[in-house]
Specification:
By secondary structure, this protein is an alpha/beta fold. The protein is 46% helix and 20% strand. Keywords: Phosphoprotein.
Amino acid sequence: MSSAFLNATTDDRSGLGVLVVDDEPVVLEQIGKALRRRGHEVSLAPSAESAARIIAERGNLGVVVSDIRMPGEDGLALARRINATDSRMRPEVVLITGHASVDDAAEAVRIGASDFIRKPLRSGEIASAVEAAMERVLARRRSFEAESDRLARIAEAEEEARRQRGEDPLTCIANRAALIERLLTPRRDPCGLVLIDLDRFRRVNEAFGPRAADALLIETARRIQQAAGRGALTARFGDDEFAVLVEGEAAMTLPALAARLHGAVAQQLGGGDVRIFLTASVGHAASPVGDGAACLRGAEAAIRNARTRGGDRVASSEEARADGSLRRIELAGALRTALRGNDEVGLAYQPILRCSDGQLLGFEALVRFSDPAVGRCDPDELVPVAEHYGLMDALGRRILRDALASIAAWRQEGLPFGRVAVNVSPTQLRAPDFAVDLCRMVSAAGLPASALCLEITETEALSEQALPTLTALREAGFGLAIDDFGVGHSSLARLRDLPATLVKLDRRFIERLPGTERDRAFFRGMIQLTAALGLTTVAEGVETPAQLQALREAGCDACQGYLLGAPMPSGDVGGFLRRGVPQA
């Protein structure tokens, strides 16, 4: 949460209050406190369900500020419910998201959200959005006071609300909702998008104050609009972000426009001992077939590329594709869509065998994702993207749901599948109710907790925050594995105190085997250390008979890898078990 809202009094709002909805208690309290300082009467709700009850009980709410991504019913569903009510009494909705996607933005426009704001939250932006939304509510409600002219006033108020919804109240240019709506309008001609992010704009606020910062934003909007020229749509895209959309032939000279906008924004501020030179990071993307959504994804990836290289530069979507930024954005969009269906996200199961005699001990469930646009994606690429874009909770639940369904099916067939290992992300582990929710899922599937072994990365397992959850999971009967052991920030003292049952040795250690005598001695030392702590060792990435023999000689307990068995779909596990595990 950024700095508090400016201390200011507000005019009479006829007793209309603001409802803030967010599942993060700290953010909820910060937004509520900030809005109260602005003179608003604020109610707080930790979920969409509790917000719906408050809305039903109170008739004097003017604005609902809601996070989009929440467990259970999300902010978009809440907004749909609100906008389905009587227009005379319904509040305006301002949506907040930390991972705004094209789909989320488009849906917000379709359901009539007043505005949507991206995290990290900034005082000026959210205050401006709430004030503008409150004005629209008052204008709409005042229009119903004269019953004799009711129908005419409704039409006038709705038209004014539509006009205001598309205009940024500070700069008087288009706002992000109007830009998204225009971007998603079907077209056949080329289009191009330029995003402009003011570098280190917070320093302007700190050095000159909020009034000077607002004046600078107004001046910057004027400069951008002038540089963009006629026919371009100029919009304020965030607190210190702007966008320019061009269509037709203008999209073919987008790099020149981006360079011109970069130069137009640069200016020196202040004098004497306090001087700041304002610069901007600029990203641009074009589509020869008029795909506005692709332009937005490409421009966002490009501007991220410009920022990571220090700012004050122009970057294209081609540069972003080269460094992987665009692929990550495209992957996040494809994954978000896939998680709403049932096909593209799946699991493959790789056998885990006892080193000494090759007996099957269980399987590891490995997530698989394939999309026509982004291709096949391995877990090492997929999981970080899901974490960054707020999709890990949904992906983690899908993985657990599918794994439990497979285990239940194998058990029904009487297959000797052992124990199934499932990776658990830091996001899932930090959720306060994760242990309770997982126990409910396992119980609903009719399975014992001992059927699952949860794999946690070494860094996350060693954190103090994770210890209560790990202890609760171990006490419930789940196996606990420290994944990729030896490549993170190892702490032998902490490892001794963890409620883990086994450690998985990273494939980077196995790749060096059989190696030199020093390599083998080092590996034997790791095996002996974990054995002294009462932990089972599992070696990952075994691909050659020589590696397997080295593991046996070192006393490693278990192993997995393509030498012993490739990952397979759930439906192939039965045949694998009936044929018998091949001896390596």
